[in-house]
Design brief:
Length: 206
């Protein structure tokens, strides 16, 4: 995920004050959750005037095995990016397809590491999901992301990341061959210069 690029775009679109620019505020939350240094955040925001004008786009696609993909991009050339994404999809078992967005919800996501006092965390009216034995993921409304992150940190647990994300409503299980094809496709998409992030609803291996 290119957080610096996202910061520059948000500043160009709505100004450098996160109190009045909700998009910028959300991205700063992501940067802080990813432990991005304050100096790097400020440098990226100051670089907005020097960077090329870019536009945000969300591509909906289908992947191997009927999986759904959402591809976030920032680009200074929409035609180039569209052609590149379409080419990669078509060559690797995917295709641009309307409707994939319905497989996801836009949520605030906070990932914590270590032991989490679930009884107290549930009092924050958020949805917990176990990622692994040491990682816990909490979902909340995007509008309450900052307050939820701060409340969880007040419980004495370490925040690994925090930010708004597309979260799959349900997952699809792929065969071994489909999973291999999907992994290759996701790798190629993530390697694209204009791609910020790729979301999928593929059920992870146990």
């Amino acid at each position: 995920m290119n957080l610096a690029m996202m910061l520059r775009h948000a500043v160009r679109e709505g100004g450098a004050n996160p109190d009045f620019n909700t998009q910028l505020g959300n991205i700063i939350e992501q940067c802080q959750g990813a432990n991005m240094p304050k100096a790097s955040i400020k440098a990226a925001m100051k670089g907005a005037d020097k960077s090329k004008a870019s536009s945000y786009a969300l591509y909906e696609a289908r992947g191997p095995g009927g999986s759904s993909l959402l591809i976030e991009i920032l680009t200074d050339n929409n035609t180039r990016s569209h052609q590149e994404i379409k080419h990669i999809l078509n060559k690797n078992g995917g295709a641009l397809s309307d409707g994939a967005r319905h497989s996801f919800q836009w949520k605030g996501v906070v990932v914590l590491v270590g032991e989490v006092p679930l009884d107290r965390a549930l009092g924050l009216a958020i949805e917990p999901r176990t990622v692994s034995l040491l990682l816990f993921q909490f979902l909340c409304d995007v509008t309450s992301l900052r307050s939820v992150r701060e409340a969880l940190q007040a419980l004495g647990v370490q925040t690994l990341s925090a930010g708004p994300e597309f979260v799959a409503c349900s997952s699809v299980q792929l065969s071994d061959s489909e999973l291999e094809a999907a992994s290759k496709l996701l790798e190629l998409l993530n390697d694209c210069h204009d791609v910020i992030r790729v979301y999928d609803n593929i059920q992870p291996l146990n």
